[in-house]
Amino acid sequence: MGKYVLRRIAYMAPTMFAISVVSFVIIQLPPGDYLTQLASGLRERGEPADQAYLDALSARYGLDEPMPVQYLQWMKGILFHGDFGMSFEWNQPVSALLADTLPFTIALTLGTLLFTWIVAFPIGIYSAVRQYSLGDYVATTVGFIGLAIPNFLLALVLVYLSRMLFGGSFVGVFSSEYAHAPWSVGRFLDLLSHLWIPVIVLGTAGTAGLIRILRANLLDELRRPYVVAGRARGMGERRLLIRYPLRIALNPFVSTIGWVLPMLVSGEVVVGTVLALPTTGPLLLGALRSQDMYLAGSIILIVSVLTVIGTLLSDLVLAWLDPRVRHQYR
Amino acid sequence: MTQPHLARHSASPWRLVWWRFRRHRLAMAGAVVLAVAYLVALFAEFVAPYSTEHQQVDHGGAPPQTVKVVDTSSGGWDWGLYVNGYTDHVDEETLEITYEVDHEQRIPLRFFAEGEPYKLFGLFETDRHLIGPADPDGPPVFFLGATVNGYDLFSRIVHGSRVSLTIGLVGVAASFLIGVVLGGISGYFGGWVDTAIQRLIEFFMSIPTLPLWLGLAAAVPTDWGPMQRYFTITVILSVIAWTDLARVVRGRFMALREEDFVTATALDGVGRPRLIFAHMLPSFTSHLIASATLAIPAMILAETALSFLGLGLRAPAVSWGTLLEEAQNFATLEAAPWLLLPGAAVVVIVLSFNFVGDGLRDAADPYKS
């Protein structure tokens, strides 16, 4: 196990490096550099550009240096000082903006992951055990549609319907009366009443995929000779299901974090924008539109790195649960 | 041996695939929907009553009109296609104009109606449209309602199908090329080449695609023309989408490498490229086609999402994604919910591709029991 952990972490290093390079390239892609944009931005607002300030920034991020040096400077700032650069649009350090939006983004993503599991687990089992029943057909159909609807469309439709049916605004995280209020039971309930839409919208595609996988895996297991043997010996159906086949069929629940997580993060960009959530998604989109490249590159970097770490954790849990996985890697 | 048996044993592999595919009812339905959709895209100028530039500013936000076959308002049965006209209503305070369907007014319709002249495929000049108002100078018709700026939504969806339906094909073709070459190399040679390519695939699979796509799309210069943009976006999408295909190809090569016929061909002195492309690849083409079909819907959804966010294609280019961009505002949506209809088109097409892909996957190996 220890060897497997080390090997897996060693594999992650080049991935992390590649992510950082890609993010840096994205920062460099648009024409012109950060300082000229900052200076022109200041001039537009009628503020004189402070040459000393600009020079200091130029030295700080090594903007006169060749590309690889700039990359190293940027990485050095992030790794040793937690300094991701400046956002010229917000006139704030990127790290401060990230600190504002990341916790909520992570909470939303993990919450959606939980929702995906809680919904997919019983439906997947039901679909496999009662194959070709009415419920199975309903689950399969809903699953197919869930995978086919673009999540922003689902968000638009849900908001439209909830406005028509219940009235009131479901956009954002808080209603206006609670927006700046201190925490209370009412504020928490208000938060929950706003969060169900993004959680459902983000979770639908993942849930649909997970149900299909769990159903297929469980069906494979249920046809194995050991299940027949158990049944022949008079083992109860419920016990027969839970004892072994379910345990094996559950593996994808852990391993799918690997593909559900990137999907959730991607979906969050769109859904966060449509529903005006204070997440990294709308921040990234705004940064890309106004070519606020340090902010954009840093968000892509940090979101990708977090996803890779999440995938790593899921792999480790899987190896811990299933000895076959750790033996494969030897 | 009976006749049907003989037919089955002497049929070519592709015929067997077709027979098996035909049994999958949803897949057949999907195939029919797709065939119709691509025909519509091909003859977009003819099918759509109006061109993409045809703007009726005085009808902005007009609701959809239902096509009716028979008019019973005058007591008798008056046959003939028609739609009801509109009455406009100006709000005293906001000066906002709202339209309502007026059941008194009648706008007759006809097939092969005279309308704006256009050149079909850039060759045949004509002014006939599949369906339109019988009187070309009379009031306009909006089967699926009008956009806020007064464009006919139905015509725009039809014209937008060109971009939305082809971007998946072009994108998958591009990622197919990368996927087959890299997956083939990975699966055939194995060893460190395989390890390197596998790491690359894992890298692409582990990062969230949309932020990366957005980052790359944002760097596309804004002054580029629609065609240039279209191809750049396709390339950006396929840069990441090839990984799934490469995995399928690699898995197949790994399995095939051990087969006797491959060893025999190699011992016969056939060179590697020929062995790979002339002997190994054809034996799993059907699997590849199935995987490619399943990859198309993801491309269509990606283009829609990018354009919806304003970083994909941009107006004046018309795609289902750019049309949905107008529906982003909830106030607009409340007044004109029909703006979501391009989304319905996306869902139908994506579902059809999924069904056809599933059917192809099941039929891909006709020799399996």
UniProtKB/TrEMBL annotation, chain A:
Organism: Phytoactinopolyspora halotolerans
Membrane topology: Multi-pass membrane protein
Domain of life where this protein originates: Bacteria
Family note: Belongs to the binding-protein-dependent transport system permease family.
Subcellular location(s) per record: Cell membrane
Annotated ranges, domain ABC transmembrane type-1: 102-318
Entry keywords, A to Z: Cell membrane, Membrane, Transmembrane, Transmembrane helix, Transport
Pfam families reported in the protein's UniProt record: BPD_transp_1 (PF00528), BPD_transp_1_N (PF19300)
InterPro entries xrefs: BPD_transp_1_N (IPR045621), MetI-like (IPR000515), MetI-like_sf (IPR035906)
Transmembrane segments: 9-29, 104-125, 137-161, 195-214, 248-275, 295-321
Listed name of the protein: ABC transporter permease
Cellular component GO terms held in the UniProt record: plasma membrane
Swiss-Prot/TrEMBL GO biological process terms: transmembrane transport
PANTHER family: DIPEPTIDE TRANSPORT SYSTEM PERMEASE PROTEIN DPPB-RELATED
UniProtKB/TrEMBL annotation, chain B:
Presence of keyword Kinase: no
Principal localisation: membrane
InterPro entries the record matches: BP-dependent_transpt_permease, MetI-like, MetI-like_sf, OppC_N
Keyword annotations: Cell membrane, Membrane, Transmembrane, Transmembrane helix, Transport
Location of this chain's protein in the cell: Cell membrane
Organism field: Phytoactinopolyspora halotolerans
Signal peptide residue numbers: none
Transmembrane segments: 26-44, 163-188, 200-218, 230-249, 288-315, 335-356
GO cellular component terms, A-Z: plasma membrane
GO biological process terms held by the UniProt record: transmembrane transport
CDD domains linked to this entry: TM_PBP2
Similarity comment text for this entry: Belongs to the binding-protein-dependent transport system permease family.
Gene3D superfamilies, A to Z: MetI-like
Membrane association type: Multi-pass membrane protein
Protein origin, superkingdom: Bacteria
Protein name: ABC transporter permease
Domain ABC transmembrane type-1: 161-357
